[in-house]
Design brief:
Elements lengths: L12 E6 L3 E8 L13 E7 L1 H11 L4 E4 L1 E3 L2 H13 L7 E3 L6 E7 L5 E6 L13 H4 L2 E6 L4 H13 L3 E6 L6 H4 L5 E5 L2 H6 L4 H12 L3 E5 L5 E5 L2 E5 L14 H14 L4 H15 L12 H10 L1
Parallel strand pairs: 1-4, 1-9, 2-7, 5-6, 9-10, 10-11, 11-12
Antiparallel strand pairs: 2-3, 7-8, 12-13, 13-14
Helix pairs in contact: 1-8, 8-9, 9-10
């Protein structure tokens, strides 16, 4: 099945990302600690993360041309986060440094036995975009606009500008934000966590939830990431279930696996792959990401991705 979109061929960027960036402090422990206990950590790492920033870095590593739109604090973490994107080759001309604000941070505890993680995060309110702040010029220069809807009204303005200029609008969503139901009718690709449809619609049946998202809001493609169970996509009434890949060498850390899935899915869209193969690409990028600690350290290049796809 082909994606139901015709991408523009005269845009400066393949994908523009608008949304979260972060610096993660990743702590690996032998096992998840019991409440009110002590445990010695195996090791810890400081690394750049954040859903949208990580997806832009992943797409850039696969050879796409990307730009990141977002705000960093005027602190050391902001310097780390911005430098990480520059090093990957992501265009950062639409970023801002907000003096007096703290860059979003996350403390992430990783269970060494399984690679599963628990995230504790904070985002400074000074980093938020109000609707008039939305940098709509960036949304007019891309084939795909990919967002997290933390600043919903700014996202609505960005999505409107993108669609007016022929771009596909994609969202990465795992929670309910104010007025999210006003944004979703502007979304072409809505990929959430396995729990998202229950949070929004109250249904525990994921397949039913995806159908309802499509019916109620008109999103052409709805989907969920399901960890070890792979992914599920709905398009034109057809459900596409794709199995997860085994992590080469074993799973070290699942942090950013969902961001990595979206990297692979959008890569498939941009390179003209069918939806089924793009789902496989999403799962493959996620598996390769889980080889190492942090959201980006082991995101694959094109050769690594194609090698895994070919060998399965």
């Amino acid at each position: 099945m082909q994606f139901p979109f015709q991408l523009s061929d005269d845009k400066e960027f393949d994908v523009v990302g608008f949304g979260t960036n972060a610096v993660d402090y990743l702590i690996t422990v032998p096992e998840y600690p019991a409440f009110n206990s002590k445990i010695e950590l195996d090791h810890y790492t400081e690394a750049a993360g954040g859903e949208i920033a990580s997806t832009m870095a992943g797409l850039q590593r696969l050879g796409m041309k990307t730009a990141y739109v977002g705000r960093f604090g005027g602190d050391r973490a902001g310097e780390i986060g911005l430098a990480s994107l520059v090093d990957e080759g992501v265009d950062v001309s639409f970023t801002e440094n907000i003096l007096g604000a703290n860059t979003q941070i996350a403390f992430i505890m990783i269970d060494a036995a399984s690679g599963e993680r628990t995230i504790i995060w904070q985002r400074d309110k000074l980093l938020a975009y109000e609707e008039p702040d939305a940098p709509v010029a960036a949304a007019t220069r891309c084939k795909v606009l990919h967002m997290t809807p933390h600043d919903t009204h700014a996202c609505i303005r960005m999505a409107t500008a993108a669609k007016t200029n022929g771009a596909v609008v994609s969202v990465d969503i795992d929670n309910i934000f104010d007025d999210i139901e006003d944004l979703l009718p502007l979304v072409d690709i809505c990929i959430g966590s396995a729990e998202f449809t229950q949070k929004l619609l109250g249904t525990t049946d994921v397949r039913q939830g995806l159908c309802e998202l499509n019916s109620r809001f008109g999103c052409a493609i709805t989907g969920v990431t399901m960890g070890k169970s792979g992914s599920l996509l709905l398009c034109d009434g057809q459900l596409i279930e794709t199995a997860a890949f085994n992590v080469p060498g074993g799973c070290v850390d699942t942090t950013g696996a969902g961001d990595a899935f979206r990297t692979g899915l959008l890569y498939g869209l941009i390179t003209g792959e069918p939806l089924e193969e793009s789902g496989r690409m999403g799962n493959a990028v996620a598996a390769l990401k889980c080889r190492g600690t942090g959201a980006r350290s082991t995101l694959p290049n094109k050769i690594e991705l194609l090698t895994l796809l070919k060998n399965i």
